[in-house]
Amino acid sequence: MKLNTISITLSGLLLILGLNGCSNNEKINIENEVTPFSAKEKKETIEISKEVLKGFMKTFKPTLKAVLKDMEAPEAISMCTHNQSVNNYSKTLPKGISLRRITSKTRNENHIAKTELESKTLHEMDILKKPIIKKVNNNYFQFYKPLIVKQACLKCHGSIEQIGETSLSIIKKNYPNDKAIGYKTGDVRGVFLVDIIK
Ligand code: HEC
Questions:
Q1: Residue of 156, 166, 167, 169 to test ligand 1 pocket, by largest number of atoms within 8 Å of CB
Q2: Residues 6+ apart with CB under 8 A from 129
Q3: The whole model's pTM is what?
Q4: Mind listing the pLDDT tens digit for each residue in 115-133?
Q5: With 0-12 CB in 10 A as exposed, 13-18 as middle and 19+ as buried, what is 127?
Q6: Residue-range domain boundaries for the chain
Q7: What is the H or E stretch that residue 98 is in?
Q8: pLDDT tens, 128-168?
């Protein structure tokens, strides 16, 4: 069955893609705490980050809709369904707040972890698969939201067979050092990372 023949509502789609916001009662983990959070800091970090991610999903919906119309199109494959949107949206956020995506197996090398803490958290996330918050120092807080691989992601991040020769050659041409294939549904592909610097 071809992806573009599946007709589902957009909210259903966001759910399938795992890009829907966090629900309010979702458990947020503080893994291997670096610097202890105060209750107020924890609450603020979670609240701000949820707003940031909610705002992103709102601006991202039209792009997603357009790309999903034709997943086989070269533009869809070379653009990915989200990169430009993440960067553009991040620029609209208040000073000190930003949104990015990082992963331990990059396609675009800009998405590498910038610090040891970030790469450590990515490894924790592989196992935990739930949002994690970190306090880097008294003025710097981070919220990590896992991006879980769904069926729809396999077209570009799955096995060589699932991606297919045509798409694979486009990917290889645009990303000669691509490491982002071979994923299975349920794997953590990477994270949305909200940085909050006060
Ligand atoms: C149509 C092809 C396509 C589909 C479908 C797709 N991706 Fe991607 N993905 C890409 C490309 C291309 C990039 C590199 C984008 C860039 O240059 O920033 C990428 C990058 C990413 C990144 C950033 C890290 C990196 O390696 O650069 C994450 C995280 C990611 N994809 C997750 C997902 C998830 C989760 C899904 C399914 C919900 C998905 N992708 C579906 C093509 C795709």
A1: 156
A2: 146, 148, 188
A3: 0.86
A4: 999 999 999 999 999 999 9
A5: exposed
A6: 9-19+27-197
A7: strand 97-102
A8: 999 999 999 999 999 999 999 988 889 889 999 999 999 89
